Amino acid sequence: MCIFCEIIAGNIPSTKVYEDDMILAFKDINPVAPVHIIVVPKEHIESAADINESNSKYVAHIFEKLPEIAKSQGIESYRIINNCGEDAGQTVKHLHFHLVGGVKMGEKII
Ligand code: AMP
Ligand code: ZN
Question: Are 109 and 80 in contact (CB under 8 A)?
């Protein structure tokens, strides 16, 4: 199992901030901003390059819930980041979106 599947299964601890039957959101272990949440589908999808007609409902659901998750963390302005593949810096091969905020961000990526 990949590390995020282990977190979903409850085998590795995490600080959960939102969970339902399709997705899980938890605090990033190495935050780059005051708010840094990782949002994952509960189905293992390797990367954004593996989104297809049968699993895109997870992505839609993540984006439907992101404003609520952000609000629960006290922010209404935020950056959503996905690293797809090794050159883009994807280190965990389970599709995830970084929800980053709580600080004034410039033009840099993070
Ligand atoms: P990426 O580089 O886009 O693949 O992002 C992976 C993210 O997962 C990094 O920001 C890590 O800090 C984070 N991460 C790795 N392991 C854990 C963990 N056990 N709990 C929470 N976040 C984690
Ligand atoms: Zn996984």
Answer: no
Q: Which residue's CA lies nearest to atom 16 of ligand 1?
A: 29
The rounded distance, in Å, linking the Cα atoms of 102 and 34 is: 5
pLDDT tens for residues 1-55?
A: 999 999 999 999 999 999 999 999 999 999 999 999 999 999 999 999 999 999 9
Rounded Cα–Cα distance for residues 76 and 78 (Å): 6
Closest CA to 80 of 105, 57, 52, 55: 105
CA atoms of 79 and 95, how far apart (whole Å):
17
Known catalytic membership, residue 96: yes
- Compute, in angstroms, the gap from residue 104 CA to the centroid of ligand 2: 32
